[in-house]
Amino acid sequence: MAFVSALAAKPHNYVIIENTFPADKINDPQVLHFSKSYRKRQFQLALILSLLDLILLLPMKDSSFMLLFFLLLYLTIGANYFIMLRYIRKGHQLIIDNKWQLPTQPIQIDTKLVLNKNRKLVSPWWFLLTLGLNLLFSFLLYRQELGSLIWILLVTNLGVWLTLLVTWWVIRRLPVRSLTDDRKINQQYNDLTKFYWSSLSVFLSVILSVLIYIPLLTTTISPNYFTFLMVVEFALIFFFCGSTIWWLFRLRQKQDQLLTQSTTVRYSGDDYYWRYGIYYNPDDRRLMIPDRIGMNISVNLGRVGGKIFMGLLPIILVLAMLVAVVPLYVLDYHPNPLTYELKNETLLLDGPFIKEKKIPLNQIEDVALVDHLPTRSVRTSGLATNNYATGYFRMDGKSSVLFIDHSSKPILKLVTKKRDYFYTNKQPMETKKLYQEIQAEK
């Protein structure tokens, strides 16, 4: 995060931390000191936050861990934004003190550039490759009789695929601006942006599909290949992160190389609209715009859609914390969070992160008390921590539903034709009592 944030201190289109400096002042000692100071603060912040994050390694209840995780996450976002805002003000003051204000020029419309704005855009037909991969993986796993899990993964992958296709469409619709008076440079600059961003959206659609499916393969193949697949998974994750940053950074470098070839870079007064680190311009019809670092797409808060997006973001963050923390507090502090009830020849199992399950006793083919869960498992929905496991899992190739407190033994295992059920009560004696009651009913 510090590395990406520090990129704002490196000149891009002569912009440093949302302030546009004259081309001949980019290497001025005051500007270099200003940039160096911002990068230094970012990495100092990263060090402090990383040390604070070490608290998460201390033994604690799951609810306390998750609450602390979210608080540290919010602190990270807030502190990073505060530093950026402070340095935007410093940069603006530096320009005023030295009288480096640039004259605002009207936006220049190049009709030829508008007509040719997408000539280097990667074809959307490449997204059919990802769609084919999704269908192929789903078919191969369907033959392993993984049941509803296949449909969950297929819907998830199609959602990712559709999101990236929409991203490609947004890139296609991004308007162009003449950044210089040189038509050739403007065209090359636009072609670079459209090619790099559209090709990245296609690349992400392919690699994310593979990353989503690999963990499931570990439940369907020989245990001898488990470690190998996990190594492949993590290698792909690092490759995905590294190649994405490298690709965008390469685009940024090429854009800067183009602009340095022109002495007529135009300034349209955009600094005013980025003074809070977020673009706000009610007179700009664009909803999605390139950010000023050159590595992302931002939203225009001057549009209704931008306001809705920014308004939903904190709501989603708070809801995510509540959804994650509240059930964990129930598991940690409620005297009996994982409940059971025998009623009308039916066993009712209930707990956080999962809907109540009704199991007719006549459908139970086998019941047993075991000391351990199957080692080959993957969670498809629900909760899985060192202390608890509730929700839907794939255990040794069979669909399973878990209501487990790992600190309580033994584990009650119920076998039905469609799936297995695993249950523990916080009080081991209650688990044994339920086992005896089911035995008596059967």
Explain the overall architecture.
Strand 10 and strand 11 form a beta hairpin. Helix 6 packs antiparallel against helix 7. By secondary structure, the chain is an alpha+beta fold. It has two domains: 317 residues, no CATH class; 103 residues, PH-domain like. The model has no long low-confidence stretch (mean pLDDT 88). It is built from ten helices and 13 strands.
Summarize the helices and strands and which ones pair or pack:
Elements (H helix, E strand, L loop, with lengths): L1 H5 L8 E2 L2 E2 L8 H25 L8 H36 L13 H5 L11 H16 L5 H26 L9 H35 L8 H34 L28 E3 L6 E3 L4 H30 L5 E5 L2 E6 L2 E7 L5 E5 L6 E8 L3 E8 L2 E8 L5 E5 L4 E4 L4 H14 L1
Helix pairs in contact: 2-3, 3-9, 5-6, 5-7, 6-7, 7-8
Keywords, please?
13 strands; 442 residues; 2 domains; alpha+beta; six-stranded mixed beta sheet; PH-domain like
Brief summary of the model shown:
By secondary structure, the protein is α+β, with helices and mostly antiparallel strands. Helix content is 51%, strand content 15%.
